[in-house]
Amino acid sequence: MTDLLLNERELEFQLYEMLDTEALLQRPRYAEHDRGVFDETLRTARTVAAEYFAPHNHKGDAEEPTFDGQRVHLIPETKAAWDAFADAGFLAAHHDAEDGGLQLPEVVLRACTAYFYAANISTVAYSFLTIGAANLVKSFAAPELRERFLPSMLDGRFSGTMALTEPGQGSALGDIRTTARPAGDGTYRVFGQKMFISGGDHELTDNIVHMVLARIEGAPAGVKGISLFLVPKRLVNADGSLGERNDVALAGLLHKLGYRNTTSTVLSFGEKDGAVGYLVGEAHKGLSYMFQMMNEARIGVALGASCLAYQSFIHALDYARERPQGRLLSNKDPLSPQVRIVQHPDVRRMLLQQKAYAEGSLSLCLYASSLVEDAHSAPSETERSNAAELVELLIPMVKSFPSRYGVMASDIGIQVLGGAGYTREYPLEQYYRDNRLNPIHEGTEGIHGIDLLGRKIGQNGGAGYRLFLAKVHATLVEVSADATCAPLAARLGDALGILEQVTAELQDQVRADAALGHANATLYLDVFGRVLVGWLWLRMARIASGALEAGAEGSEADFYRGKLQAARYFMDWELATLEGQARVLREGNSVCFDMRDEWF
Amino acid sequence: MTDLLLNERELEFQLYEMLDTEALLQRPRYAEHDRGVFDETLRTARTVAAEYFAPHNHKGDAEEPTFDGQRVHLIPETKAAWDAFADAGFLAAHHDAEDGGLQLPEVVLRACTAYFYAANISTVAYSFLTIGAANLVKSFAAPELRERFLPSMLDGRFSGTMALTEPGQGSALGDIRTTARPAGDGTYRVFGQKMFISGGDHELTDNIVHMVLARIEGAPAGVKGISLFLVPKRLVNADGSLGERNDVALAGLLHKLGYRNTTSTVLSFGEKDGAVGYLVGEAHKGLSYMFQMMNEARIGVALGASCLAYQSFIHALDYARERPQGRLLSNKDPLSPQVRIVQHPDVRRMLLQQKAYAEGSLSLCLYASSLVEDAHSAPSETERSNAAELVELLIPMVKSFPSRYGVMASDIGIQVLGGAGYTREYPLEQYYRDNRLNPIHEGTEGIHGIDLLGRKIGQNGGAGYRLFLAKVHATLVEVSADATCAPLAARLGDALGILEQVTAELQDQVRADAALGHANATLYLDVFGRVLVGWLWLRMARIASGALEAGAEGSEADFYRGKLQAARYFMDWELATLEGQARVLREGNSVCFDMRDEWF
Description:
The structure is a homodimer. By secondary structure, chain A is of the alpha+beta class. Chain A has 4 domains: 8-146, Butyryl-Coa Dehydrogenase, subunit A, domain 1; 158-284, Beta Barrel (Butyryl-CoA Dehydrogenase, subunit A, domain 2); 285-443, Up-down Bundle (Butyryl-CoA Dehydrogenase, subunit A, domain 3), CATH 1.20.140.10; 444-590. In chain A, 57% of the residues lie in helices and 11% in strands. In chain A, strand 1 (66-67) and strand 2 form a beta hairpin. The model of chain A has no long low-confidence stretch (mean pLDDT 96). The interface between A and B is large, with 105 and 105 residues.
């Protein structure tokens, strides 16, 4: 199975043909590197993922974590994988060299993480959560606190979690009830219960650093009274040595459809005297700190979904190429040999659909990562702020498209295999189960739709939206001279026109009646997402067309022809339904809004 | 959980308002019954399903069957459920009174089976497979063979299976390799391996009667050389007593994504001297016998999918009504109480979508069952043959729409619950897993699409298709005077026009190039399915509108208003994409057809 781990050529295409990742070497932060360093890092990621993560992906699912009332038990391969990831330097790779990091660009590291997601999304979750928690500590914790915890989170001695959700509040963070009481010595005592905390308990590391959202006693209600605390599982002495157990207890493990080797926990803080917690940054600003990390977390979820989609695609393709069954419609001779199922047109349709979703999603996530990178390190202030505007606008689609269409790609993978796809003897059903979480965590489509329509579209006077339109228009102009791509550009041009019109009319609707105007925002999100991914497919098609014109041969030519065909599929098939959906939006359809509870 | 078992009012609506099930009492076969008998049978089904099936639905999934090399172990509740089903007479209910049956109409029994599917689809599979196998024995076996096996299959001593699929052949039945050698005494010795045989081994019954497709030595190749054999697990003496073990061995259990309490087996026939098999009916006609049962099996799969969709809907609704989270968009006061999530417009959209899929699917399956009933027992030959034509035409959609949209309804159910939906602490994730099998068994969409376009549409000079068009046109005329339904009828009228045009053009395409013309048949199947279900929703809307006009009040009025709103949803949202998809079909889009293996 390890030989079916993403596709190096595809990642290379995204990094160096779609994105100009080599140009990053011109930026001062990366001047010490060269392309060889990027490629070597990618190879290391692939090797570690293939050797330490992929082999127990199925086992970690079949033998999920257990809690004996005292300890959590994971299959031992999980610890070996954790160590290999840390030893290869990936926990710290994006940090500056002076902090012990490799000072590598965001987008290169994202491409590295793709291998881990593809190999074993639930084992690698411990590592990625730790990276996220460490980013919060690094960015917002006071120097003393940072010194005490960060080095151990970068070298793999400590792991981390993000403890936001509570049983009674779900996605509505403003209703967080966990409280923090000042202890008088600058620390706090934290009381409350958190739920769905991934990696919330295990014995992979000496300690677990929980980044906890809580409300300081007397704080304002709602989102403006939430603070961020660092609450370790075990206390850490000033010299860095481990102290006693903090008052954080595992109340229980949740049992999930997929992602099974990641513990999902209910954690109790302060069942005794209160859990010792350290305020991170300023009081009442917890949610804004968390939000600064959220875009990256959302790209991470989306990339995970993309990689599971990709794995579903290549495993289905592998099966379809090997499995003989039936004959072509034109052949009525029962004595003739069976054909491989990849030769059946409907199987090709399914594989092409998977390819369009998986590669489109992957491209979207890496593009978004490049924007995050540009927002930090692009040479000019204008480039940095434009990238930041654009990524803010696009995040709802970046999160939602790969999550939604990724599950579809996994679903189609089962269908390609038929009965075999439904059995646990093949990996498809696990990808399907694992992938089903992605449309939920880091914001459902319902939440992102409202965020898009109610906030992002009009943000800063619509600056991000205008940037996006300008970029798509520029591509349309750029490809207009390419006879191969012109028909694709025509389809995308129509789709963009539909999007522009719908957007304008929905903004009017929101102004006229905010509640009704937002009612169909999820559909709008989906429409926008397909136009966005359509744009990326047009760009991929243009590159492919150019490479073929330039004389690409053999497997390279096949690679580019596949890109072109997937782009055609996306334009002809996926954009075909936009107009009808836009009609629903434009008429301000109120059928769902008008439905009443008692009529169900 | 047993209180959330379908909805009696919904079944009543389908049987007595959508369908005129009471009119069946005029037919000689049912003259002895009255409506009270139908209702009592439905109540019995509900009670047995709730008491013996629903309580172990989760347990049968969590503790799936195991094979110790000698015996298959099932949780003991499975046997109690088997017995309760048999004791209530459901194994024989559709048979004539003189054969020990209840002589009940197909459509009433289908409605009864809905309760079992909803309660525990994998435990009841043993019973339904037995009913299918018994139907084959009854219809095609010679009297002596029938006498020896049928009574025990009707009273629950023996169970049955359908053994079609083999490891090397999958859906291509013409490639069956299992062979039958004449033993010289009128019996045969069967050799070969069968795979994905549901209920292929267990100890619920004294014996298992396998209905096996095999090829008599020297038979023609392909589908015309396949015969049907009865191969019991244990031989049965002429006096009905059990003899020794037959040469049928369990090679292994398959481990599935869902439907876990149904054993899925690999069976080896004839590892020693050959399994004793009895030819059923005439040699080489096995596939035609099987096909005569297949429509009913397909309606069964579709009904199972519909019921899982319905369960996903009502569990999501129940959660949405209880779960407080967040506030309405208009309310910025963080101190105000949270609302139940059913009040969020996007949650209502999801629930309405589930309702539209689940009730539309249920309606479709019961309508198809009523056609099967009419084909057998309608008063005139014309009515019987029309019903038979229509059911033949519609079966591809009857199988495919509930399977495809049922999984979507289960998927949406997870989304309504959010993180909770993803955990095994709630039943949604199991419905999702169970339901995922339904788009595969009894024919994938790929197979049904080709069957529809290549065979069914033109069958008997297009008689079935013309009947369908006439029926929809008649409904459009009938509702035109109803101001409430007129806008819905307008949408459906447009959709029907699209379908007619697409159908005509696709038939031209098939004539011009059969392979290319069939390439997009799956999309055509989906388009046809939505028009068909749209028609049923229009009829449901008309009934609801009439009932409201007639003064329905209270919960009855709410029920009908819900029907109207779901119909509006279906017309406005689900039919919105037809036109764009029809364009893909009408242009004879060849993107998927042209894709080559080496380009992937």
